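Hi R.,

As promised on Friday, here is the backbone we talked about, encoded as structure tokens. Could you run it through your design pipeline when you get a chance and send me back a sequence?
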């Protein structure tokens, strides 16, 4: 599978990853400019951006990029001498295990965008779905029936635009799932009546917007959709509305007993078990050296 196809697959599954691309390579090195890989939260590397020694540095930097959600230009060098021209904002890693050469790799994290669940099949729901996609939000559509009652655990915002159906039940489910923004398309009187039925706490009531949307005097379905999207953006950018994070895998680190480098333990990290003790290495060279030392002792 090509990297672009794999990336699209992960985006559809809302799985965080880092896209790594070799932008410069200095011989001798096994990687070349244009080589690319995808790095997952568990440390898995799919593709090629260098040999075992380089992979450990790339893996560690990629996991940091996922946490910060900021792109990184990683420069992996065999010693402290900067062989490449200076690059503002680059992160430099000195990896003494490299067999010469140097690499410069661009790491671009891909974090799932805010997910807005829209309940209903009304003109407002249709306009809202189109506008959410236009601003880069992910959209999940559901009708007003039982199919909308699934727990929205990964949802940033839920908007109920069904003009009927199990509106109160949907609000209750969204509240229990921890959704931070819940909007109900209804008049002020009808919305208040529905909320009164639920007997909400003050904290829960603060998470439900009805009438939903910023008060811009919206009349048409499209205008109402604009007011709702604007309010969601405001809640995220200024109100601290949290975007549920994909559960991160627990990533282990170990100390290479030969070179002393901190190694991020992944599925392809060189490994050796001696006397029931596990050791991990930055590359096959250190593993071979350690094994030889143990065999002779």
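Update: got your reply. Pasting your designed sequence below so it's all in one thread:
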């Amino acid at each position: 599978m090509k990297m672009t196809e794999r990336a699209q697959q992960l985006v559809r599954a809302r799985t965080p990853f880092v896209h790594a691309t070799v932008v410069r390579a200095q011989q001798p090195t096994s990687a070349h400019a244009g080589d690319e890989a995808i790095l997952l939260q568990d440390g898995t590397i799919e593709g090629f951006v260098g040999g075992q020694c380089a992979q450990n540095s790339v893996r560690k930097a990629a996991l940091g990029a996922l946490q910060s959600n900021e792109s990184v230009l990683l420069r992996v060098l065999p010693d402290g001498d900067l062989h490449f021209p200076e690059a503002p904002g680059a992160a430099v890693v000195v990896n003494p295990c490299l067999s010469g050469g140097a690499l410069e790799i661009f790491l671009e994290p891909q974090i799932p965008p805010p997910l807005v669940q829209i309940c209903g099949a009304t003109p407002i729901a249709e306009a809202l779905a189109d506008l959410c996609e236009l601003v880069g939000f992910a959209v999940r559509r559901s009708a007003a029936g039982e199919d909308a009652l699934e727990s929205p655990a990964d949802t940033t915002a839920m908007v109920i635009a069904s003009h009927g159906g199990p509106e109160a039940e949907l609000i209750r489910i969204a509240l229990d799932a921890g959704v931070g923004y819940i909007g109900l398309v209804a008049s002020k009187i009808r919305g208040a009546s529905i909320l009164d039925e639920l007997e909400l706490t003050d904290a829960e009531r603060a998470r439900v917007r009805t009438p939903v949307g910023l008060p811009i005097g919206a009349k048409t379905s499209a205008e109402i959709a604009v007011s709702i999207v604007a309010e969601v953006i405001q809640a995220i950018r200024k109100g601290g509305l949290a975007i549920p994070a994909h559960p991160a895998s627990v990533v282990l680190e170990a100390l290479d007993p030969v070179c002393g480098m901190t190694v991020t333990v992944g599925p392809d990290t060189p490994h050796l078990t001696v006397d029931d003790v596990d050791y991990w290495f930055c590359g096959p060279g250190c593993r071979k050296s350690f094994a030889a030392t143990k065999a002779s002792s």
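One thing I noticed while checking it: The chain has a mean pLDDT of 84.

Thanks again,
M.
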